[in-house]
Specification:
This protein has 301 residues and is an alpha/beta fold. It is built from 9 helices and 13 strands. The strands form 4 sheets. The chain has a 7-stranded parallel sheet with strand order 3-2-1-4-5-7-11, with helices on both faces. It has a two-stranded parallel sheet with strand order 6-13. InterPro entries: NAD(P)-bd_dom_sf (IPR036291), NAD(P)-dependent_oxidoreduct (IPR051783).
Length: 301
């Protein structure tokens, strides 16, 4: 399996060893592609890792798969659970699917956390920058009031508020557009000539950096609260499309806008995430997409 090395692994492991903590189990709820990459990083740091999902047999070692469905009763958490990462993906982009996955699923997860005796594990919720509305190209950070422009974004914000009510010590990581191995939609659109080369601002993060950020916030004991997970360079979509076209030896598309209800027009700041000591393997879209085009990394099912 070819993967990028664990970022911050040595410092995180050393810090926990110095603190005399006994590493227990990390449970990743909704352990898909992103959760698997995060789980592998926790395993490298010395944790036992359980991945809860409908098809646990798809998970690679050393992650232990556990069959679980957010639509019903969840299994009991292991007695030595220290961390719960909630990182599912809704099966479709509808309000009903988002409510079932992110809102009701998170509530069931927190019920399972509450039912576990002893010291409660830390909880990290993987959310989305879709909770922000259109900022007309202005900068946005964790202090910006979220005003979702879509019904699904409103559900995500409700899930965040649920976590804050029940676990004020929890962490929320709002990720922007994740790309990487197996996430090649824009590359495919450039190849087929269907990519929109508009002037709106887009914010992105490579899958490996998103997974590393999840592990980093937990392993380094970053302060509770909300973090934005994006790379260093908000950029016009036209620049990304032109870059990909040149890298693939294709004609650069002319300007062509396509309305989108998802991306918003905003520049997202990663300053708070970086202030914790996090360092990106792919600090901008050029480094990240070159890696994808070169076929580096591996997508997990």
């Amino acid at each position: 399996m070819i993967r990028c090395p664990l970022r911050n692994k040595a410092s995180a492991a050393e810090r926990w060893a110095d603190m005399g903590k006994v590493r227990g189990t990390v449970v990743i709820i909704g352990c898909g592609d992103l959760g698997t990459e995060a789980g592998l990083r926790f395993a490298e740091a010395g944790y036992q890792v359980q991945g809860w999902r409908r098809r646990p047999a798809l998970l690679p070692a050393p992650i232990t798969g556990v069959r679980a469905d957010l639509g019903g009763a969840l299994p009991e958490l292991p007695a030595d659970t220290q961390v719960v990462v909630f990182a599912p993906a809704a099966p479709e982009r509808s309000v009903a699917a988002y409510e079932a996955t992110y809102l009701h699923g998170l509530a069931r997860t927190l019920d399972a956390v509450d039912a576990r005796p002893g010291e409660p594990p830390s909880v990290l919720l993987v959310s989305s920058t879709a909770v922000y509305g259109d900022a007309y190209g202005a900068w946005v950070d964790e202090g910006t009031t979220p005003v979702p422009s879509t019904p699904t974004g409103q559900v995500l914000l409700q899930a965040e508020e649920l976590l804050r009510r029940r676990r004020p010590d929890g962490r929320i990581l709002r990720l922007a557009g994740i790309y990487g191995p197996g996430r090649t939609r824009l590359i495919d659109q450039v190849r087929t000539g269907t990519a929109a080369a508009g002037a709106s601002i887009t914010n992105r993060i490579h899958r490996d950096d998103a997974a590393a950020a999840i592990a980093h916030l937990v392993l380094t004991g970053a302060p509770p609260g909300t973090y934005i997970g994006v790379d260093d360079e908000p950029v016009e979509m036209s620049d990304v499309v032109a870059f990909l076209a040149r890298e693939m030896g294709l004609p650069v598309p002319g300007p062509r806008e396509r309305e989108s209800s998802r991306g918003g027009n905003r520049r997202l700041s990663n300053a708070r995430l970086r202030s914790t000591g996090f360092r990106f393997a792919y600090p901008d879209y050029r480094a990240g997409y070159r890696s994808v085009l070169a076929g580096q990394g591996q997508r997990h099912p």
